[in-house]
């Protein structure tokens, strides 16, 4: 026994030294790839692999494994061996092969040139990247399964550091792996693809971002992109009968028009449902095949123009990353009173931006960052009509699916729909705060979502703004005021406890959507007014106070430097104020 203890002790110290020596090389790999020095990245990856392999060998021999059954010491030895083995897997099966194909998947090579994206490099790299993604998740799962409650402090700290690193690396690895899985076929490697682009207008909010004001068809054939058709939202007339089946729970919240009006398909926050319904409406009107649906809005366009540089529109305007939002969501309504003129301007702007992007004018890395920025804010969403592709997309932030909770995290949602019937949401400022804590005797978490809306329109909005913007009272809302319907979604299987404002109950329609409790309430604000409403939820299927919140991307209110708003601020929840 003394020999075994000495053996394990010495090898443990050597393994610790090897793993600590590997850390600087992991950082070098990352910085070298970022800077484009692939030779340095390759050399660092080899050094990292050697040290991780040494640590795994030192902790995997029969004596070490036998000592894992010794009470007290066993849990520590198991944790160290698992961490060392995972590190070796990451070095040899993830980092090393990804460095080898880094040049093939360099974002700079993914930018279009003369209307086409060269998909050959990523097609070549796909098998390697997919295997690396699978190996990464295998290693992550093994580390996540380590029970660090029974280990000594230094081991717990080391394991915690590795868990944190893996969690932070997961989005990047999955983005690369999913891109390799999807891009070749979605860009037409196996034959032409046709996609429906929905241009959302956040000046008239819908749950996924904004009313569908314009539509376009984009084709992709072996990487070659073309804008083949455009249409305004008003060109698709309401269907006399529903074009798609809408779940009864969804229809109970948002009414029967989702499957009849293109302007209402995205009253629901479920983007796959909205996208498939919009696809059915387009096909009913124009025919053809739709392989997928994408969304974008003027804020996302501004990000793209930040990468490509300015574009000129046929009407004489120049759109830049700085003026696009104001031009498309405010100025246009002052310049042209007729919707047909506005639609023509929007079509010209869309064509100019598409042509600029497809020409290859943007730096590839900058273009990818702009698209990622739009995706992070839920301004870029993608649905595929192909089941295998949609299965991959559903796991990404680009899918726009209803939030999915786990046993440790309550996934909530806050969604906004305009009820003014106009373009006043250009002046709507939104703020969402959320918190969760275990406040109840049953050990289950409670959550609170607080929504604050502010009408930033000028005090004389009723007369100073165009009637097309204010709505002129057509739907019973005084000109200049903003009426918004807010839907707060709780976690699956949870309960709605209370909706309140200023300490009193606030009128709400309570319901469910695919097993999620929903509080649906309305706020109407005159210029300068603000209202805060809080929703208390009981999370019945969670064992820990984890939280994520999906929020409709909005604007930041009318300011000289009009910005954008998205997401929620996570704050501490005071248990003395919650519903028990």
Mean pLDDT: 86
Classify the oligomer: single chain
Number of helices: 15
**First CA to last CA: what distance?**
55 Å
Coarse shape: globular
Category from helices, strands and their pairing: alpha+beta
What's the total count of β strands?
A: 20
Radius of gyration: 27 Å
Report the sheet-strand fraction. Answer: 15-25%
Helix content: 40-55%
Ranges with pLDDT <50 over ≥5 residues? 557-563
| Strand order across the largest sheet | 13-12-16-10-9-20
Largest sheet: 6 strands, mixed
Summarize the structure.
With 580 residues, this protein is an alpha+beta fold. It has helices at residues 2-35, 38-58, 62-67, 74-100, 120-144, 153-186, 248-254, 271-286, 298-308, 324-335, 339-358, 364-376, 387-393, 461-464, 467-470, and strands at 193-201, 211-221, 224-232, 292-296, 311-312, 318-319, 381-384, 409-418, 428-438, 445-455, 482-489, 495-501, 504-505, 509-513, 516-525, 530-538, 546-551, 554-555, 564-565, 569-570. The chain has a 6-stranded mixed sheet, with no helix packed on it.
């Amino acid at each position: 026994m003394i020999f075994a203890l000495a053996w394990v002790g010495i090898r443990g110290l050597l393994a610790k030294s090897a793993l600590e020596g590997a850390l600087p090389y992991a950082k070098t790999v990352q910085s070298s790839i970022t800077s484009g020095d692939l030779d340095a990245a390759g050399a660092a990856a080899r050094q990292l692999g050697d040290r991780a392999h040494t640590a795994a060998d030192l902790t995997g021999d029969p004596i070490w494994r036998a000592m894992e059954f010794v009470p007290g010491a066993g849990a520590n030895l198991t944790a160290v061996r698992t961490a060392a083995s995972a590190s070796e897997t990451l070095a040899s099966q993830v980092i090393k092969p990804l460095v080898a194909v880094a040049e093939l998947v360099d974002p700079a090579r993914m930018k279009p040139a003369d209307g086409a994206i060269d998909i050959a490099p990523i097609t070549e790299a796909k098998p390697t990247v997919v295997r690396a993604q699978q190996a990464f998740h295998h290693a992550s799962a093994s580390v996540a399964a380590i029970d660090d409650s029974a280990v000594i402090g230094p081991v717990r700290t080391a394991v915690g550091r590795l868990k944190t690193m893996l969690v932070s690396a997961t989005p990047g690895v999955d983005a690369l792996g999913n891109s390799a899985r999807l891009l070749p076929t979605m860009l037409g490697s196996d034959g032409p693809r046709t996609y429906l682009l929905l241009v959302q207008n956040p000046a008239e909010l819908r749950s996924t971002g904004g009313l569908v004001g314009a539509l376009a068809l984009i084709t992709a054939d072996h990487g070659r992109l073309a804008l083949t058709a455009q249409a305004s939202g008003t060109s698709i007339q309401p269907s006399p009968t529903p074009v798609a089946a809408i779940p009864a729970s969804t229809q109970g919240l948002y009414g029967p028009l989702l499957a009849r009006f293109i302007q209402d398909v995205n009253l629901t926050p479920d983007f796959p449902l909205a996208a498939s319904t919009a696809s059915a409406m387009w096909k009913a009107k124009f025919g053809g095949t739709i392989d997928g649906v994408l969304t974008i809005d003027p804020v996302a366009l501004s990000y793209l123009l930040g990468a490509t540089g300015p574009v000129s529109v046929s009407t004489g305007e120049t759109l830049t990353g700085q003026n696009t939002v104001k031009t498309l969501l405010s100025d246009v309504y002052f310049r042209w009173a007729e919707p047909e003129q506005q639609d023509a301007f929007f079509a010209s702007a869309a064509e100019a931006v598409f042509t600029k992007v497809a020409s290859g004018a943007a730096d590839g890395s900058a273009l990818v960052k702009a698209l990622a920025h739009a995706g992070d804010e839920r301004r870029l969403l993608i649905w595929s009509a192909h089941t295998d592709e949609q299965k991959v997309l559903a796991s990404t932030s680009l899918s726009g699916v209803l939030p999915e909770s786990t046993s440790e995290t309550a996934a909530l949602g806050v969604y906004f729909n305009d009820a003014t019937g106009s373009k006043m949401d250009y002046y709507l400022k939104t703020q969402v705060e959320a918190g969760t804590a275990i406040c109840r005797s049953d050990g289950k978490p409670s959550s609170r979502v607080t929504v604050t809306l502010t009408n930033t329109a000028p005090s004389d909005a009723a007369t100073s703004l165009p009637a097309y913007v204010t709505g002129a009272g057509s739907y019973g809302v005084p000109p200049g005021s903003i009426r918004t319907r807010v839907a707060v979604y709780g976690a699956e299987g949870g309960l709605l406890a209370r909706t309140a404002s200023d300490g009193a109950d606030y009128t709400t329609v309570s319901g469910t959507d695919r097993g999620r409790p929903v509080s649906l309430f309305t706020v109407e604000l005159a210029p300068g007014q603000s209202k805060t409403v809080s929703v208390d939820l009981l999370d019945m299927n969670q064992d820990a106070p984890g939280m994520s919140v999906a929020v409709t991307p909005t604007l930041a209110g009318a300011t000289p430097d009009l910005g954008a708003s998205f997401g929620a601020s996570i704050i501490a929840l005071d248990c003395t104020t919650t519903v028990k």
